Amino acid sequence: MSWLLAAYAAVAIAVGGYALRLARLKRALVSEIDASKRLR
Amino acid sequence: MARRSGMILDAALLIAMAAAFGMIFFYAPIESEMGIVQKIFYVHVPLAWNAFLGFGIVFFSSFRYLATRDPKWDMRALSAAEVGVLFTTLVLITGPIWAKPVWGIWWTWDARLTLTLVLWLIYVGYLMLRRYIESPERRAVLAAVVGVTGFIDVPLVYFAIRWWRTQHPQPVIAGGEGSGLDPRMATTLWICVAAFTLLFVALYRRRLAIEAMRARAEALRDDAEAARMEGARS
Question: Is residue B226, in this structure, part of any structural domain at all?
Fold first, then answer.
């Protein structure tokens, strides 16, 4: 059972980490675009 | 519209994942020889097939980029490559975790495993190449060439267990006479394939949206720079 849980945990951590990274990138780009629009 | 379809996709993904894991634990039988560890199969195989899907998108988009030089194809190739690398990384992690209790070893240099590692290296190389080239056009062209030529490894990985004797198990889906799965295992596998395909699409869409936003941010930056130069001249 521990091998199975280790495999599933690895998938959950990697996919969750990647999704969080994408969310952070999106937030940073939204702020950058908003700031550029304000400067125009 | 895109926001609404994204929400529908996320809801479908959640339902499909809940169904998939429910079936893995409460419906699929425990395999007689390997025991419960065999259930790694239900994530390992869908991850591998969706990695192939990702690299297929890289191949097609790269080909289209070389034909049209339209940056949208380059963005599509990059997004698919990144999600494909994530999925292949997970194939290379879940495989050894399954192998250790079943084979007694983490890894062996058989054709399927080695070619999968080569596949991962090709697309990690693809992503690294993109980081090292400054000029956007040159970067896109060279990446597209790698995206088209690198795909050759995908059929090699797929057919490795049919062409050569490997430590990796022989195919259980479309494997010919003597192969096959218990019907409950097969149903669970297909639900898992559907769930992981939705996961692939959800991640791919998010990654692609980021590329589009990055292009927009760069265009706004260039406009601001041009306006600043204009102001300084007048």
Answer: yes
